[in-house]
Structure formats: structure tokens, C-alpha cells
Amino acid sequence: MSAVTSSAPKPLLSPAMMGAVKTLGIMAAITLTIVVLVQSGAMPKGSIGHNVLAAPFIDMWELPDLLVQTLWEGLVAGVLYALIALGFVLIFKASGVFNFAQGIMVVFSALTLVGSYEIMTQRMGLPTGTVVAILALIIAIATMFVLAWLVERIVLRPLVNQNEIIMLMATVGMTYFLIGFGEYIFGGSPKVMITKELGLPQGSTQFNILGGRVNIQHLDVAAAVIASVMIAGLAFFFQYTRIGRALRAVADSHKAALSVGISLNQIWVIVWFTAGVVALVTGIMWGARSDVSFALEIIALKALPVLILGGFTSVPGAIVGGLIIGIGEKMGEGYWGPLFGGGIETWLAYVIALGFLLFRPQGLFGEKIIERI
Amino acid sequence: MLHVSPPLAKTGIAKGEVLLDVENVSLRFGGVKAISDVSFDIRKGEVRAIIGPNGAGKTSMLNCINGFYFPQEGHITYKGMKRTRVRPHEAASSGIARTFQNVALFKGMTTLDNIMTGRTLKMNVGLFWQLLRFGPAMREEIEHRRKVEDIVDFLEIQAIRKIPVGKLPYGLQKRVELGRALAMEPELLLLDEPMAGMNLEEKEDMCRFILDVNQTFGTTIALIEHDMGVVMDLSDRVVVLEYGRKIADGTPEVVKADQKVIDAYLGVAH
Is beta strand B73-78 parallel, antiparallel or unpaired with respect to B81-83? Predict the structure, then answer.
């Protein structure tokens, strides 16, 4: 390219590139400093500085198979976090409600699935197997639809245009109702997810790579694939279809949406139903890794740091936030956990989110709020 | 002018007949009376202006017509049917479109997407095909996209088709909002201060579009406007509100000469 045509000097790199170069530069400087400190003997083996700043990275370098294993586990956890966060984002975007009940919806939908399967096979005498499992799945989906419809009728419609805190309290109320209702129907004891009957793969495969072994659970692969397909599908649906457009329109401005003939009530049912289906998928995947019990509800709290990171209104934010939290958590637990005596997984996510909050209060992808005065 | 036979609307209301009739409408918010006992009509094919000082109840009137508010007294007859508590999306499906005083667009969406939302009611392929975005859903999308492109051409906003509207200057946002209302192919178009905050050039463009819409598509238009020059040029008939009451109604010339209107705008010496 000839640079003769314009007299003004062009910057060598675009601003975004400059930012990336700067970040890389800072990282390189930090790395160099650590290397110098270690090599010069200023930070001997066993010192706190060495344990925190150098030893984990030396471990990563020396045992690459362990690193791959940790990254993979982080990725799977991250995709599942993204799925939970997506449930929140959907509802928050369309109705401005922070749905405290998302966690219990995960449990309730999974319980409906397992519970109806148990009832059909044990009390009604239907044969166990895939057919009945699919039937139970349909029942669970239908239940989530009825739930969405009831929420719109009983909770959202009478409370439309109320203060956010009132809507939040309404979802807190819903949470306790669903806990009580779920226990009344399905009992309080943990249930085993019908993984095999649903046709989800089990077992694991070992790969010999990088001079070591990497163990990959088939279920994790399925979870990652299904969650990714679901997220991509939803993003596509939002972007390119009439109902997707209507959903985004409602998220942007209620009165304008009404004026072009979009029915808020219908959109709310669709959104809550979609969030219900997302909850069901999350429940199946998470339930398959542990048990289906009311304790699962707390995984919804894991969505909070993801939301803070990704922004409450952004679907891509939920995905990237989920991955950062998932991978960050597993890496932290694996490499820095021993320094704290382990178990840092439970709070590390919140610390990562807090760190982000200091620099980007609106999250990675959230809308920056600029008020005109 | 060439003789053109009056375009017959789908409902069979001919040009010049009453399309919307407001009878003795009163609207209260608690103890505050926003509108008291106002009656007027809008005839098919005309440009009807609603004017009045700030707080006269003009926007409240539009909100009653389009179903955002339910008047406590009186009723509104639209296309010969008396309406009780019509909801906004029902008003929209019966052919009433509107724009807002402070632009209500979907800021994160592009110009095209914004105008496409105006086609929502005309599209009816079910959720199943939409999830696949295949077959009927795709055909429908293409067909309506074509209509939207026509509107984009008509409003001369081709250059901003793919820009998120939040980034556009105010004047263009107003134009996109008009485009979204036009995409609904309305019979009655309610414009709430379509020229507010515009410079002279933008105002002239907007006037031209409004007249074009009225003349080429035969759309009935009710508009609120503060610029008297614009009102006198555009409208066939004017209704004047003050403190929620109607104080004058008639052609621009009649209204301009009305003593009550002059008093309302210039103030009276007590």
C-alpha cells in the first residue's frame, strides 16, 4: 500500500490493537520480573512469593497433561455456568426481573423429570427404558410451560410496572412456593438422574497425550455439546426471527413494543418458558454429575459472579463470563488451592467477580450506563 | 389535480367519513383531571392536528386513542365500533400506529430490525418454523423484508439500515420511528410531536414525508405539534385543547382567528 495519498500520519495500529499490545507488554514485563527474581535467588523455593507467583506456572509447564485436564474440567463447568446465567439473562432482559427462582426452577424441572419417570415406571407399571424417559421429558417440558403461564398470570400481570425490588421479592416468594410444592409432590430425598434412560453417554475415555493421561468423561462431552448447541440456537433465534426480534424489542422499550402490537403477556410466557427449558437442561446435566436434590438450588448462586462478569443484559456476556469463572475456578483450585488448604472453589468465583467490578462495573459486555444531566 | 376516486379502506369507510369519534371523554389521574369532556372526530384521509399549550392533555388524548390509558368517562368509536378498554396491542392490530414524543425506539437494534418489528402483526408463521428458520418462516421473512426496504427507500434512510439506532442523531431516530409506524400499514397514524427538537431542514423533510404518506397511501393522520407554521401548512382541521378542555375546533384559518385560542397562546390581561 502506498502511503503517499494521505498527508496525515496514520497510526500504526488501531486503538483496540494498541490495547492488546499494551496488555501483552505488561504481562511480559511481569513474567520477566518473576523469572529474574527466581533466577537471582531473591525468591527462593518455598518462600511465599515463589509459591504464589512461580511454582504454579512451573507445575503447568512440567505437567502439561494435568493442565489440559484442569482446563477441560473448567471448560465443562464454565459451559454449565453459562447455561444457568443464560436463564437469568433471558428473564432480566425481557421483563427487567432478577429471577431469584431460577435456581429452584433447575431443581423443580429436574425433579419433575425424574419424579414422573419414577411414577410411570413404579406405580403405573410402564417398562423402564428410553421411551418412558422421553415421555417424562415431554411431561417436564409441558410442566415448565404451565409454570411460565401461571407466573405470567399470577405474578407478572398484576405486578406490571411495579418497582424492581417488588418483582424480586415476588420471585423470592415463588422460590419458597416451589420448594414446598416440589417436596410435597416428589418428597425431599435426593433422586438419581435417569442419565442412561435418556440416552446420555456414560463412562470415560483416557487419552495418552503430552507424556501423561487425560481422562474425559463422556457425559461432560455431551453436556458441553448440548449446552453449546442450545446457547448458539438461542442466540440465533433472538437475532433472526420475528419472535426473537419481539423479545429484544420488549427488552428495549415496553411502550414502543406495545405500540407496534407486540403482546407483553405472550412474550413473557415465551421468555419464562425458554428459561424453564434452559433450567431443565441445566438440571439434567448437573443432576447427572451429582444427585437431583434441593441442594442443587445453590448452583444458581454461582450464576451471580458470572452475571457480574458478563453483564446482566448480555447473552455473549453470559457465555464468556461462564467460561472465565469455570476455568478460573478449576485452575485456582488446582494450582493455588493447596496454598489455602484447598476448597477455594467455593469463593474464588466471587473474588474474580469482585476484581472485575472494580474496573468494569457494567460487566464485560453490559451496557454502559451514561446519564445525560 | 387529477381526479382520484377516494381509496376505500378495508373496512369500507370512504374518504371524508368519520374514522374515529371521541365523545365526551374524561380522564383523571387520582384527583388530577387530565382531560375533561372532550369531543372531536377524525375523518378518513385527513390530517388532523391537536394543538395546545404544555399540559393541555394532548399526549393523554393520544394515549387514550391507542389504549395506553382508559378514559373514565365517555367513549371512543373507531371504524363504527364503540370500544371499551382497548389494549395497546389490540389498537395496533385494528390499524392504529403511533410515534412518541421522546422517541421510543429499540436502541440496541438496527434500523432494519426496528422497522421489521412494525411488521410483527402481519407475520404469522408459528414458533415451530421460526425455531428452524426454514421453509415458511424464511419465505415470510423475505417477503416482509422487501416491504421494509420499500419504506427505507421512501424515507431515504438507506445509508443507516444496519446501524444500531441508539447511535443515530435525533432527527434520524424520529424518521426511523416513523418508518416503524409505517411498516404497520396503519389506517390511522398518531404522531406525537414529530418535529420536536429538529432543525429547519429536518423539519422540512419530515413535513414532506407526512404529506406524502397522507397523499400516496391515503393514511389518516392525527398529529400533535407546537410549530404553528407546520400545523397551519399540514393540517386539514385543527382541534385546540387547554387545561384538558377543548376550546376550538375547525380549519386552520378559523382556529387561528379564534379569540380563545389567541388568549390561550398569548395570555390574557386580567
Answer: antiparallel
Residues B239 and B231: their CA atoms lie apart, in Å, by 11
Confirm if B163 and B99 have CB atoms less than 8 A apart: no
Q: Left, alpha or beta for A150 (phi > 0: left; psi -120 to 50: alpha)?
A: alpha
Residues 138-177 of B with CB under 8 A from A: 140-141
For residue A213, the number of C-alpha atoms closer than 13 Å in the C-beta half-sphere is 5
Place of cell 455439546: A225
Q: Shortest CA distance to A297 belongs to which of A81, A102, A116?
A: A102
pLDDT in the model for residue B222: 92
The b-or-e profile of B96-126 (16+ CB within 10 A means b, else e) is: bbbbbeebbbbbbbbbbbbbbbbbbbbbebe
ipTM for the complex?
0.82
Q: How remote is the C-alpha of B42 from its chain's centroid?
A: 12
In A56-73, which positions are buried (b, 16+ CB within 10 angstroms) versus exposed (e)?
beeebeeeebbbbbbbbb
pLDDT tens digit sequence for A2-31:
444 444 555 666 666 777 788 788 888 888
Contact criterion met (CB < 8 Å) for A260 and B131: no
Contact B113 A237 (CB under 8 A): no
Instruction: Report the interhelical angle of A102-118 vs A299-310 (nearest 10°).
Output: 140
Cell of B55: 399540559
**What SS3 state is found at B75?**
strand
- Mean pLDDT score of chain A: 82
Is B26 in the A-facing interface, judged by CB distances under 8 Å? Answer: no
With an 8 Å Cβ cutoff, are B106 and A252 in contact? Answer: yes
Q: Specify which residues A212 forms β-bridges with.
A: A209
User: A27: which 3 cell numbers?
Assistant: 504481562
Sign of CA dihedral B170, B173, B177, B182: positive
B190 Cβ contact list (under 8 Å, min separation 6)? B62, B65, B66, B96, B97, B98, B99, B221, B222, B223
Residue B260 CA neighbour count, 13 Å, CB half: 13
Give the gap in angstroms from C-alpha A132 to the nearest C-alpha of chain B.
Answer: 24
Residue pair B229/B196 in contact (Cβ under 8 Å)? The answer is: no
**Residue A292 bridge partners (DSSP):** A191
Q: What is the pLDDT of residue B115?
A: 92
pTM: 0.79
pLDDT digits (tens, 9 = 90+) for A206-229: 877 777 788 888 888 888 888 888
**Tens-place pLDDT, residues A99-145:** 888 889 999 999 999 988 888 888 887 777 788 888 889 999 999 99
Contact of A157 with A248, CB cutoff 8 Å: no
Which set of grid coordinates corresponds to residue B255? 382556529
Q: Looking at beta carbons, which residues of chain B come within 8 Å of A245? A: 109, 113, 116-117, 120
B130: nearest CA in chain A? A241
Q: What's the confidence (pLDDT) of residue A37?
A: 79
Name residues whose C-beta falls within 8 Å of residue A80's C-beta, 6 or more positions apart in sequence: A223, A227, A282, A285, A286, A322, A326
> What is the grid cell recorded at A267?
412474550
Which three cell numbers mark A119? 411414577
DSSP state of A191: B
Distance, CA of A85 to CA of B96 (rounded, Å): 39
